[in-house]
Amino acid sequence: MSANFQLDEQAIRTIVEDVMRGLGRAPAASVAASTSEPKSSAASTAPRRSGPRFGVFDCVKEACAAAQVAFEQLRNKGVAGRRQVIDIVKELCTKNAKTWGQFEFDETKIGRLEHKVAKLEIVKLVPGVEWLRPRGMSGDHGITMEEHTPFGVVGAVLPVTHSIPTLSGNVINIVAAGNSVVFNPHPGGARSAALAVRTFNEAINAVLGIENLICTIETPTIETFNTLTKNEHVRLLCVTGGPMVVKAAMASGKRAICAGPGNPPVIVDGTGNLAKAAADIISGAGFDNNLLCIGEKQVFVLEHIADRFMNELASAGAAKLTASQLAKLSASAFTNAKDAGGCSHAVLNRKLVGADAAVLAQHAGATVTAECPLLFAETDAEHVFVMEEQMMPMLPVVRVKDFNAAVIAAAKSEHGYKHSCVIHSLNVERMTQMARALDTTLFVKNGPSTAGLGLGGEGYLSYSIATTTGEGITTPETFTRTRRCVMVDNLRIY
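Above: the chain's sequence. Below: its structure in C-alpha cell form.
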C-alpha cells in the first residue's frame, strides 16, 4: 500500500454504508447495452441523494465532461497519484468482496455467490503502474526515449456476467495508464457498477481530491452507449460484452479494444492423469456456473479412454445426463423461434444463462444436489451445446477416433474466435499441433481454464480479454499511446 493511503477498515465501512444508503434507485433501462445479454427489470424511482456525484451520472455528456476534468487533475498528481488510486481500488475490492459479491449476485441473479466473492478477492492480481516501462535507445546521434502516455477519457462497456470485477480490473488498467473512464454498464448490473464507482470515488476524493475519476451511467441503454462513443472527450473505447455491442464499437470510428465471444474447446488424449483432467475441467467449467468467457465449453476425448474419462467426471462430482434428459434440457436451453432471433440458428434461453446445475437438471427431468458443480452428457460434434457459446454448467463430451479428428472438431467448434482452448496431454507435439490449428489468445495445458488468468498458473489477471481486436489480456500498456522523445547529438557521453 502507498504510504499516503490512510483509509482504515472503519473508514472504508463508513464509505460503503454511505454509498449503500445513496443507491435508492435501480436502473430501469428498457434497452440492453448488448443484445447478447438479458435486459434489466424495472426498478424503484426513489429520489437521488443530493450532493457530490462521485461518478454516478444520468447524462453521458455530463459524465464525460466530469471525467475530462478528472483526467487533467490526475495528470497533475503524477505516477504517484495513479499508484494511490490503484491501492484504493484493490483495497476496497478485498475489503468489500463479500458485501459486493452478494450485492451483485442479488442484482444479476446469475452464477454462484462464492465465485462472485472470489472474483473480487483476486482483483489484486491486476497489474498497475509497475507494468509501464519506458524504452531507451542511445547511439552516435544522441538518445531517444519512448514512453507510454494516456489517451485521456476512456469509454467502457461492462458485461452483466462480471460487473464489479470487470469494472475494477478496467479501472486499475486504465488509471495506471493515466486515463479517466466512463462506464456504460449492462443494465442488469448497473446498480452494482454504481455502488463500486461511488465508493471508489469517495475514497479517491478523500485522498487525492478528485471527485469523478471513475464515472458510470446510472440508467444505461443502447442510446447512452451510442452517445458515449460519439462524445468529443472520449478518445478510446473498451468493450467487454456481446457481439452486437462489439460490432457497434468497432464501427464508431474511434479506436476500440474489444473482448469478443469465445467458445473454448478442450481436448483430452489420455496420456496424462485422467482423474486430474476431470477435476480441472470441472473446476474451470463450473466456476461461476461457466460464465467466464475462458471457461471450458466442450470436451473432445479420444474414444479409447472416453468411458474412463466420463467415469472420472462423475467421481469428481459432476452429474451425467442420459440422452433423453439431454434432449429435454436442449429444448429448454435453446430456441429456433423466429421471435427470439433463432430463425437461422439456435439461440440461448437467457433465463438459464449462469443458472445452477440443479436448475438445469430440473429442466432435463433429473435431480441433482444444490452442491453439484456441473452436468455433462455425451453428444455428437454438431450438437447445439457444442457449437453455441452456452454459459451454463453443462458440458458436452464428444468421442473422437484420434487426435487429428479431435483438433479438427475443436477448431470447428471454436469458430475462429481465437479466444481460448485447453488440452490435457503429456505429448508436446500434440500441444503444438493444437496451438497451431486453433491459434487462440489463451492456451492452457494440463490445468483448469482459470489458470490462464493467473489463478493456479503463472501470469496476471484481467477480466477484459481483447480477442476481437488482438490486444489479448488487457494491461495498463493496452490503454496507452507511445510517445517518442529524441535528443539529437547530445547527452550521449561516450
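The longest strand covers residues 142-150.
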